[in-house]
Design brief:
Elements lengths: L7 E10 L26 H11 L6 E5 L10 H17 L3 E5 L5 H7 L5 E3 L22 H13 L4 E7 L5 H18 L2 E8 L18 H11 L5 E3 L8 H10 L1 E7 L14 H8 L5 E4 L13 H14 L6
Parallel strand pairs: 1-2, 1-8, 1-9, 2-3, 3-4, 4-5, 5-6, 6-7, 7-8
Helix pairs in contact: 1-2, 4-5, 6-7
Amino acid sequence: MLINNSRVVTYSPAYTIVPTYECFNRCSYCNFRTEPGKSPWISISDAASILKSLQSEKVCEILILSGEVHPHSPKRQAWFRRIYDLCELALSMGFLPHTNAGPLSFAEMEMLKRVNVSMGLMLEQLTPTLLNSVHRHAPSKLPEVRLQQLEWAGELQIPFTTGLLLGIGETADDSWETLAAISQLHQRYYHIQEVILQPHSPGLQQSFNAPPFNPHQLPEVIAKAREILPTDIAIQIPPNLVNDERWLLACVEAGARDLGGISPKDEVNPDYPHLQKQVLREILQPAGWELIERLPVYSQFDGWLSQELQTSVKSWRNTFKSGCEV
């Protein structure tokens, strides 16, 4: 892991594949979902065409980001199989998969570990008060369900990314308690790679009528998060949601040293185009920061991977030949 006081900021060259946008949750701030049955699932052949076009692009991470099919839906098994097959396809074509598909069963996580170098799930906020507001119609946003995922990931030795959504009705103390819960689980299993601090950014599809989280408050939140979280957890911010370059630099100075997966489109926040790596370098370099590519798995977790996955990871580490990437 990179030393927190080094002048390095990391990102993952990534592309997002969405198995389906359909989701049985109806979070009022969501700009991603469609109603169940209203969104076609991506076919394996279409995904293969996309991945083939990326093989010359130096894209490393394939983020499999899916809407959720209800655990008791008759389509659940086929949905999970599609996700697994997409991960397997991405691996076979030379990429490193990272899946974020909502809460999964222990058995589903155990299976996906075979074809993913890391996985993720946003905690968002653990306060139950949001179950009466933005999560009123989101059964899988129960705090205990999401915490269980982090615990299972630790038990299964899955390198994991989680995070907070800021500005959805929580208090500052709620955020600190969520960060403390992440810290406690990490100190049991040492499996959390990154914590994302994502400011609520209104989009055209959502029904949640609230202003954006003030990005000028982010550096203070990051500094507090850096105090709460162990130093081996990276703090990540999405740079497209901090569109003032002075405040993006302030976030980095406060301790956010990772910018996540940079891909052509932010599927979760489609109204906010990703800043591409050259633009980010032009912001960071004059302030003395170096932007470095990283893999979707940090090097300290390589030993948790199967031999097949380790071989793929080693090939990518040799490709980057950076010495600074993690």
